[in-house]
Amino acid sequence: MRLLFFSCFLWVAGAQAQQTLEKLTVEKIMRDPKWIGSSPANPMWSADGKTLYFSWNPDKTPADSLYYITRENKIPVKATAAQKVALVPEINLAYNKKRSAYAYAKDGDIFYTTIKPLKTRRVMRSADLEFNPQFSFNDTKLVYNRNQNLYAWDISSGETVQLTRIQTGSPATRNSSARDNDTQQEKWLKEDQLNIFVILKQRKEKREATEGYNKNLPKEKELRVIGIDDKNLQNLNISPDGRFISYRLFKSAAGNKGTVVPNYVTETGFTTDIPARTKVGELPASSEFFIYDREKDTLYNIKTDSLAGIKDLPDYVKDYPAQLAGKTKKPGNRSVNFSGASWSPTGGYILIDIRALDNKDRWLMVWDAATAKMKTASRQRNEAWVGGPGAYSRGWLDDNTIWFQSEASGYSHLYKMEVKSGSTTMITSGNYEVQDAQLSKDRKHFYITTNEVHPGEKHFYRVPVTGGPAQRLSYMEGNNQAFLSPDEKTIAILYSYSNKPTELFLQDNAVGKKPVQVTDKATTEEFNSYAWRDPELVTFKARDGASVYARLYKPSNPDPKKPAVIFVHGAGYLQNAHKWWSSYFREYMFHNLLADEGYYVMDIDYRGSAGYGRDWRTGIYQHMGGKDLSDNVDAAAFLVEKFGVDKKRIGIYGGSYGGFITLMGLFTTPDVFAAGAALRPVTDWANYNHGYTANILNEPFNDSIAYRKSSPLYHAAGLKNHLLICHGMVDVNVHYQDVVKLTQRLIELKKDNWELASYPMEDHGFVEPSSWTDEYKRIFKLFETVLKR
To answer: CA 746, CA 726: separation in Å to the nearest integer?
Structure first.
C-alpha cells in the first residue's frame, strides 16, 4: 500500500483553476461551518400560541441560543435566562377534552393550568420524578406516573389517590417469608416453649384475638399487587374513563455479546475501550402487553394467537430447502413487539400497534373494553420490510374511527377504519408520499406534508378527514417544514432551497397567504461572494426502465478530458436529489469546486432512497449493492451519452452507505469507475447493527446468501482501479474493524492500488475541520491525479 504524504496545498492545473481556488478551496469548504451563517432550528410555540421560540446563533458564539418572536413583533429577540427556565413548549402539553385546561411535566413535577382564567397550580412537589400527565375519569382527575405506578389528583378536591400497585418480582416471591416452612424440630421447639412459659402463651392468645377482631372490621379495598418479575415497565397509561390501565413489559435478551471500539488518543495516554452495540443476528428482546380492569379486578394478557398470518414464514426461507422443511412441519407463532397503544376518546376501545420481529408484518388491533376481545383493523404485510413515512402513525378520529398510514397502495397514505363495521376508507391517494400528518384540534382535518408537487419538494396541506381535495398552504419552491400554532391560526415555516440555507418564515394559516421572512442570517457576506450553483434536477432511465432522480452540477468550462464524479449519499434510506439545502452541505460545496475544475458531478437517489414510495424503498431487499449500485452505473452511462463524458474518467465517492456502494462499484463493476473514495464504509454487513441490517438482509445465519452477495469483503478480488479509504478510528456506528478486515483482505489478495487514511479522534460523523479538510484534500487529489492524467 502506498504511503500517504500530501502537501498542505492542493495541486491544480492551469491559471484558471488557481483563480477559482482563490475563491473556493477545500480548506474553506471544510472549515468551521459558521462561515456559512446561522440557520434557525427547533421552532417551539408557547402554550398560548402568541410566542414562537427557536434555536439560533447569529452572533457566532460557541453554541446556539434561544430566541423568540411574537405575531406582533417579528424581530427576533434573545430569551432571558428566566424565560428559558419558564418555557413549556405547546408540544409537551396534555389538554382536557374541552381544551379549557392543560397539564405538563416540568423539573420532575406535574403542573395544571386553566386557560380562562389563566392560572397554574403545581400538583405535586417531591424529590421523585413525576411525568406523563393525562386527563382521565371524564376529565375530573389528572393522572400521572410516579415510581412505576399511576396516581390520580382530583381537580376539585385536590386529593391524590394511588391507582396501581405494580411491583418487581412475582407475588409468590414477595410472600415467600409468610409461608410455613418450619421443620419438625422447629415446630416441636415452638410448642415446647408455649407449654413451658405461661406469659408467652398468653401473649400469643392475645395477639391472635386482636388479629381476628381486626380481620372482621370493614376495610377499604386494597390495591391489587401486580408483579412484573424482572421485566421493564413501559407505556403505563389509563383509559379516559379511568377504568382500565394498560402497560407494556419489556425484557432484553440475556447473552448478547457487545462490541468494543478502542480509543487510542486519550488524555491519560492509555488506550481505553468504548462499549458499543451488538451485531446483526442478536438475540431478540421480548415484549408483552397487559390491560388491567380496575372495576372487575381482572388482568388481561394480550395474546397474539388471533393475529392473521402470525405463523406465516417469510418467502426467503424458500432459498434454503433444508431450513424450510424443518420450519413447515410445525410452525409456531412469530415473535412480536408491542410498539404502542392509544385509547379511544371515551375509553371504549384501545388501538394496539403490533409488529413481527422479522418486520414483515404490522398489525393494528382494536381491543373492545365491553367484550375483552380483539379484532383486526389493519394488517400490513411486506415480504421485504414494513416501513416508510408514517410507519408508526395512528390514532382516533372519534370513538368508532381510527386513522393510520400505510404503504398498501405503494405510497404512504392516510386511511381511516370504522371499528363497528370494519370498513376502511383511503383519505389521500396518488403517486406521492404523505410524509407527516397531524390531526386538527376539532378532528375535522389533517394537516399533512407531502411531495405531491415534485419528489424533490415538500409542501403543507389541509385535507378533510372525510377525504376530498386537499388545500395547499405553502408555495415557496423547496422544503417547507411547517409548525402549526396551538390555535391553528399561524404557521411557522423552516424554508430552504437548493443553494439557500434554512431561514424562518411566518404565515397565516389560509390559502393564498404570503409568508413573511423572520430571520436573515443563514449566509454571510463571505459565503454570498461565491455564486453557488442551483443544481439541475434531472431524471434518467435505469436499465429496468425505472426513472431515477438526480442532482446534476454542470461545469461552465468542461475540462477537455471530460471527467465526471458520482456522489453516493449515505444512510441508504435518505433523499438528496431535492430542491432544498442538503444535510450534505460540505459535499454540495465540494461539488461546486469540482464543477469549477471542469468535472460533471452527479448525485442520484438510487434504489433504496427515501421519497419515492414502497417499491423504491425496498428495491435493495436481500441484495445491497444490487439495484442501488446498478442505478449509479446507469448514471455513469447517462453522463457519457448525454454530455460526452469520457467513460474511462469517471470517479465515485461517498460516506457510510455511500462508501459501501463505492467499494461495491470498484469491486464488482471495475471497468466503470476509474477511481473511488470510500469514506467510513461498511465492508461486511454481518458487522453492522441488527435494527437496520436485519430488515434488508434478514439474519446472517438465516440468509447467508444475501450477506455474501451484499458484503464488499467477499468481492475485493475484483479491484482493478484506484481506491482511497478514509475511516474514523472511534466510529461507534460503522466500526473501524470493518476497514481493518478489508485491509487484511486486500493485503492477502496482493492488491497495490489502494490507500487507507485513518482518523484517530473521529467518530462516524467527523467534527474537526482539520479532519474534514484532510479527507477532502485526499479525495480531490485522487480525482485530479487519476481522472485528469
So the answer is: 15
Q: Which of 43-52, 241-250, 604-613 has the lowest mean pLDDT?
A: 43-52
For the stretch 79-136, pLDDT in tens is 999 999 989 999 899 999 999 999 999 999 999 999 999 999 999 888 999 999 999 9
Strands 165-167 and 225-227, by their bridges, are parallel
Other beta carbons within 10 angstroms of residue 483's beta carbon come to 20
3-state SS class at 726: strand
Strands 500-508 and 516-517: antiparallel
Beta strand residue intervals within 125-224, DSSP E: 130-136, 141-146, 149-154, 160-162, 165-167
Cell of 31: 472549515
Return d(Cα 94, Cα 103) in angstroms, integer: 5
Q: Find all residues with CB under 8 Å of 461, minimum gap 6, and list them.
A: 447, 448, 449, 450, 452, 470, 471, 472, 473
- Sequential DSSP letters for 466-506: T--PPEE---SSSEEEEEE-TTSSEEEEEEEETTEEEEEEE
Q: What is the CA radius of gyration of the chain?
A: 31
3-state secondary structure of 463: strand
pLDDT at position 171: 56
For residues 477 and 497, what is the distance between their CA atoms, to the nearest angstrom? 7
Amino acid residing at 4: L
Instruction: Name the region of 407 (left: φ>0; alpha: ψ -120 to 50; beta: rest).
Output: alpha
pLDDT of residue 220: 63
Question: CA 586 to CA 671: how far, in whole Å?
Answer: 29
Residue reference for cell 379511544 = 344
Q: Which residues pair with 289 in a beta bridge?
A: 248
Beta strands in 579-732 (DSSP E): 600-604, 650-655, 675-679, 722-728
Q: Is 50 exceeded by the pLDDT of residue 4? A: no
Reported pTM: 0.91
Contacting residues for 86 by C-beta, under 8 A, at least 6 apart: none
Q: 164, exposed or middle or buried, with CB in 10 Å at 0-12, 13-18, 19+?
A: buried
At 337 the three-state DSSP class reads strand
The beta-strand segments (E) located in 158-243 are 160-162, 165-167, 225-227, 232-238
Alpha helices in 25-170 (DSSP H): 26-30, 81-86
The 10 Å CB-count burial string (b at 16+, else e) for 408-430 is beebbbbbbbebeeeeeeebbee
DSSP-assigned letter for residue 80: P
Which residues make beta-bridge pairs with 396? Answer: 402
Query: What region, left, alpha or beta, does residue 132 occupy, with left being phi > 0 and alpha being psi -120 to 50 degrees?
Result: left
Cβ-contact 73, 516 below 8 angstroms: no
Q: What is the pLDDT of residues 648-665, one digit of tens each?
A: 999 999 999 999 999 999
Compute φ and ψ for 150, nearest 5 degrees: -105, 140
Burial class (CB in 10 A: 0-12, 13-18, 19+), 767: exposed
Q: Is 272 left (phi over 0), alpha (psi -120 to 50) or beta?
A: beta
Question: Which 8-state DSSP code applies to residue 157?
Answer: T
Question: Biggest alpha carbon distance in the chain?
Answer: 115
Task: Phi first, then psi: give them for residue 369, nearest 5 degrees.
Answer: -65, -30
Residue 393 CB contacts under 8 Å (≥ 6 apart), including other chains: 404, 405, 437
Show the cell assigned to 301: 394478557
In three-state secondary structure terms, 447 is strand
CB 386 within 8 A of CB 359: yes
Q: Say how many Å lie between the first and final Cα of the chain, rounded.
A: 21
Helices (H), 354-473: none
Digit-coded pLDDT (tens) for 462-507: 999 999 899 999 999 999 999 999 999 999 999 999 999 999 999 9
Distance CA 631, CA 555 (A): 23
